[in-house]
Design a protein that fits this description.
homodimer; 209 residues; mainly alpha; Arc Repressor Mutant, subunit A; Tetracycline Repressor, domain 2; 9 helices; elongated; DNA-binding; repressor (chains A, B); HTH_TetR (chains A, B); TetR/AcrR family transcriptional regulator (chains A, B); BetI_C (chains A, B); transcription (chains A, B)
Chain lengths: 209, 209
Amino acid sequence: MGSNPDGKTAKRGPYAKSRLRRESIVTAAHQVFAAHGYRGGSLQDVADKVGMSQTSLLHYFPSKSELLLAVLVLRDSVAAGEIARASDGIPAGLEESFVDAVIRQARFNETVPGVIELYTVLCAESLTEDHPGKAYFTDRYQRLRESYARRFRALAEEGRLREGVDPARAAATLIAVWDGIQTQWLMAPENIDMAGCLRDYLDLVVLPG
Amino acid sequence: MGSNPDGKTAKRGPYAKSRLRRESIVTAAHQVFAAHGYRGGSLQDVADKVGMSQTSLLHYFPSKSELLLAVLVLRDSVAAGEIARASDGIPAGLEESFVDAVIRQARFNETVPGVIELYTVLCAESLTEDHPGKAYFTDRYQRLRESYARRFRALAEEGRLREGVDPARAAATLIAVWDGIQTQWLMAPENIDMAGCLRDYLDLVVLPG
DNA sequence: GTCTATATGTAGATAGAC
DNA sequence: GTCTATCTACATATAGAC
């Protein structure tokens, strides 16, 4: 998806260039918004990083808010790509456990420069009035809570959820631990063990299979 | 502290007026920063809320960043005031348990308009480059983690910490749950039970006395 | 202490030449 | 597609009259 190992169908000329240009702009915007937030980061900053003028940048994205949405879509595709890569080649019936998948994703995020910064900073910023990322984040959290709640309910049916734990509340709490520990990790990376804290929580809630 | 029930020493004239003026400015700034963040909120917004000109406002606070620090100090004093009020009149030896204190503080915050917004929005914003609130938040988290870790160690000595739980990591995780659940509550207040999630976590970690 | 006027800087977005 | 020039809006902060 995206790359064309088959030479015959590879895009050529202005179209391919334009797509690459857009990608480099979104990548630069990712860095700028991660470091300064949406309001604090300027189109000029992004343009400087790409090496073009601010007006040329607006030729590719009609407005700053459109650029933000493109950055958020990129973030999703990075995470989804990793999940696809990891589940690749694993035979059916031997899928990774929910707990392991969470820990692995947390560790993976830690290695990608800027993803955690971007997510943490923009998520909270989106809570402010008239923020163009608000819908993205509220929708995402809604879906994520439902997804995790389903996982916990499935574990409960296997008798692997600790007595008294409510799947829906555990879902919200897991997301909370994850988000909250990322914030602390950004402030003091050497003092915070993100994957460790996530595993601690999941070990309390999920009984060994 | 601050108020003077004794009439003789009450401040009069310009001084008292000035102090009240400062307080109303900080209160207005609290609202503005909670709704728009530090970067998104303008001194003009604050001045409009107070009913004065933007330049007059700068007569009381030399800069926007100084105003932010004053807002953060106010936030602390509100929380500390509540703690003092709650422990008032409780006989020694019958102090509130750590778990109960956390739950009560969480419930209290929920009732104060804007405190959770302000905290969540500014905390994440402070992670961006050159943010005047950065030192406040990093210091605060450092102290908070140490304080909670001490509490958990004390519980461990009473044999009331669950087997295998590390006090330091539990401290970071408790803060994470608290912060993270606040974010979700701001997005969907009707779907999130903040105090419930905190109690769920603490019940997993702290054994009944 | 409060204001008007203003300095100064920067933002996002548009028009139009090349 | 890319640029320069510009528009418009708004920001923080300063100077100085009253």
